[in-house]
Amino acid sequence: MTERVWQLGQQQLKIGNRPLIMAIVNVTPDSFSDGGRLTDPQVAVDYALRMVEEGADLLDVGGESTRPGATPVPLEEELARVLPVVQALAQRTRVPISIDTSKAEVARRCLEAGAAVVNDVTGLTGDPAMPEVVRRYEAGAIIMHMQGTPATMQQRPTYHDVVAEVGEYLQSRLRQLEAIGIAATRLAVDPGIGFGKTSQHNLQLLAYLGTFGQTGRPVCLGVSRKGITGFFNQRPVHERLAGSLALAVRAITLKQAQILRVHDVRATFDAVTLCAAIDAINPHNPEPA
Fold it and tell me: What is the DSSP string of 102-159?
């Protein structure tokens, strides 16, 4: 696998044989999988540090649920949720911190507090001030595709060719952001599994996930515990680890994703580390004679 570099402020993350693991730290009362567990800042910080011990390469702190049907959280409320956690983590770990937000002011305050990445489900389009914040602070950013908004995205999403349309959108956003001075080396892309897509759309995106690597940037795969991981057997959220790991292993085996955004860090770390060790011995995986 060709090594890629993701520039986050003054720090470089090198992505080689094993994908980076981004731990989800939801400090929200209403996230689809773990809402309410980490609303106390100290509990959230302790949890995040435990995720680092389990193998997390990045910590993604979010204070606003983006589950289907979710409504926006007021600025001050989101800041009150995330800022104490980001400040404390920046003092206690060297693992890069990502802020999962579509509000420029939340991103600005968190970058000043020590975060290094903006993970924006709107692809830096939801707040007109967001691209300038990312540029000014030289932050890394994850550019995601979403049709509609969290409140509306699952109301009959429609595509002519979902793989082509998502790919074109991501390429276009990369060009636009580079044009305003955000270096390509600071950007990663995310096809937005579950964000304005039906189950069939999600399956198509997963089948052709490697397509998005043609952008030249790391691909972030965020499928952990989502509906698609329990789709065929109708598994509830708390029984979707097997499906989540299956998609993570497939992505690394086929070299389709370089960043895995997950809830279950230890299990994911064990699975992808083993895959990477085998791949290091036989990186080409030829068919048997």
Answer: S-HHHHHHHHHHT--EEEETTSS-SSTTHHHHHHHTT-EEEEE--SS-TTTTTSS---
